Amino acid sequence: MPIISKEVINDIQSKANIVDIISAYVSLEKRGKNYFGLCPFHNDVNNPSFCVNEEKKIYTCFSCHKSGNVFGFIQERENVSFIEAVKIVGDKIGYELDIQIQETSKFERHFEAVELANRFYQNNLKSADGKEARKYLTDRGINEEIIDEFEIGFAPKSNDTVTKLLLNKEFDENVLLESGLSNRSSNLYDTFRNRVTFPIHNDRGRVVGFSARIYQKIDEAKYINTRETPIFKKGEILFNYHRAQGEARKNKYLLVVEGQMDAIRIYASGIKNVVATMGTALTNDHINLLKKLNVKIILCMDNDSAGEKATIANGEIISNANIPLGILRITGAKDPDEYLLNNSVEAFEDAIKNAITFFDFKLNYLKRDKNLKKVDDVSTYINQVLRELNKSSDDILVNLTINQLSEEYGIDKNILLNKIIKVETKKVAPIKDTYKKTINKVQKYCEIIIYYMLNDIKYIKLYEQELSYLPDDLYNEIANDILAFYIKYNYISIADFITYEIEGPRYDDVLRIVDSLITNELDDQEYIVLIGKIKTMIDEQKINELKEKLKTISDINEKLKITNEIANIKKRMCE
Questions:
Q1: How many CA atoms lie within 13 A of 170 on its CB side?
Q2: What are the b/e assignments for 434-454, b being 16+ CB within 10 Å?
Q3: Where would a tag sit more exposed on the chain, N or C end, judged by fewer CB atoms within 10 A?
Q4: Is residue 533 within 8 Å of residue 444, measured between CB atoms?
């Protein structure tokens, strides 16, 4: 992992506007000096508790107590290392860092094997062997630019070309088997043969597997995919996510489709904020990837009954995660790929703009296979709608729907309202607050002293002149770290000090102090009074220690000496 100097890190932080950076992930609203929004780190639906202080360059959540600076936010939100977070922030503000972040893993050889196979497949498509496969792609409207963009390749017809290539490159047989590139019968053989290959990347952009498609009319499965491997897990990957995430943030929405060819066709049409599921229902890992983007999701499944069911299943998962959701149902084609082959891009863009709400889709879905001229079917439909309304916490939606049902079917509103059995809202268990700890009065005073020191060098100087010691080992060490930072850099900044402490044992305690006191107003007089109180506490502590010592001494002269020392301390306390 490359090393970036503290000076460069602090320079990036000073130039990065934390509000601008975090606003790409969280919708923030200014209230007084601070900005507030829904916390991205816990279920913070109804009570915005996430606070960003632009001046101090820090954030904190008053509920889950996640705190830190801009690098800490990116680390937590993107699940990356500190150095990677610095690089990401630098990239966002146009700060040129002459470093390359290379992901390392205990499965690095697996990554390398898959990446080498991908390069081979790409080159093979452009060889004489790939002529028919290239024609197949051209006939499907996939041009050279898209072939290169998506790294499309061709697996040769022969049984073990890629296996032999990788063995000759000194890859272990187990790596080839575990990465899904090879299988074994009596000998090793290639998993993918005589197929067009579409590499699958993880969210960092590394190739982790393949989807391979037939290009001739043969009696074989249309697609075969890399099996689950240590680096490829379908439940963690969305096809094209690594390309789409930036475009999604820019356009404020992400289109989610079923098939890779759908995603490629849409991307080739100029709509680049598109991903495809890997033939599975959305998982918690997929939802985490979607949440990172902080954008609306437009769900566009295939135009068949299976696609309708997938829309319901995936729509519920997305809605339950409190992600804004729209539903796009195409007409006159079985999927987006076919639609765009027969219709204009403008027509597809208009369809995206007119995506309906998930609730409206469910209402239409509930009408399917029902004859709404029959009393029984109408009754079934209305009862199903009422059950859906029971799940909603939106009173306006409930009332509008009740009015609509009443007018459409001539049923008294009160009957419908009475029919809705209000399901008792499931109480969300309070966040277990392992972040806070019980502290005594001395420790509380020490925390306030430290918070003042972190905010202004004048408080550091006053601490040096008037106190220079805190009567608690932990807080005394933090105060010494603040002094060391000030001596080295000749300034103080909460955000930069957090970075300074990030690899140290007191990092969490610094964040806790900042989190608990971030709303405190600074007052010079309060600080001076506080120093006086701590001085008194130190003196009282010293007196108690001397009194205990006095009990153990029999020498008269030594007792007199200790008694005088106690008297001097008491005299100083009275001055």
A1: 0
A2: ebeeeeeebbebbbbbbbbbb
A3: C
A4: no
pLDDT given at position 44:
63
Report the range of poorest mean pLDDT among 97-101, 498-502, 568-572: 97-101
Q: 222: exposed, middle or buried (C-beta count within 10 Å: 0-12, 13-18, 19+)?
A: exposed
What does the alpha-carbon distance between residue 570 and residue 331 come to, in Å, rounded to a whole number? 89
Q: Cα 380 vs. chain centroid, distance in angstroms?
A: 41
Instruction: Report how far residue 282's alpha carbon sits from residue 238's, in angstroms, rounded to the nearest whole number.
Output: 9
Q: Do 203 and 235 meet the contact criterion of CB atoms below 8 Å apart?
A: no
Inter-residue contact 22 to 70 (CB < 8 Å): yes
Residue 181 DSSP class: S
- Residue 55's nearest CA partner among 86, 91, 30, 25 is 30
CA distance 343 to 332: 10
pTM over 0.70: no
Q: Percentage of residues in the chain with pLDDT exceeding 90?
A: 46
In the chain, the amino acid numbered 290 is: L
Q: What is the overall mean pLDDT for the chain?
A: 87
Q: Rounded CA gap, 523 and 520, in Å?
A: 9
**HEC assignment per residue over 364-433:** HHHHCCCCCCCHHHHHHHHHHHHHHHHCCCCHHHHHHHHHHHHHHHCCCHHHHHHHCCCCCCCCCCCCCC
Which tokens is 442 given? Answer: 């001395």
Would you say 180 and 229 are in contact if contact means Cβ atoms under 8 Å apart?
yes
Residue of 292, 255, 246 whose CA lies nearest to 277: 255
pLDDT surpasses 90 at 116: yes
Pairing label, strands 296-300, 253-257? parallel
Model pLDDT for residues 23-72, shown as the tens digit of each residue? 878 878 888 888 988 888 776 656 788 899 999 999 998 888 888 999 99
Return d(Cα 275, Cα 297) in angstroms, integer: 10
The rounded percent of the chain whose pLDDT value lies above 70 is 94
Predicted pLDDT at 193? 95
Strand locations in 72-227, DSSP E?
153-155, 182-184, 188-190, 195-201, 207-213, 223-225
Helix (H, G, I), strand (E, B) or coil at 428: coil
Is residue 463 very low, low, confident or very high in pLDDT (cuts 50, 70, 90)? very high
Q: In 3D, which of 523, 522, 516, 527 has the Cα closest to residue 58?
A: 516
Structure tokens at 305: 């009954």
**Pairing state of beta strands 253-257 and 223-225?**
unpaired
Quick one: average pLDDT of 374-391?
86
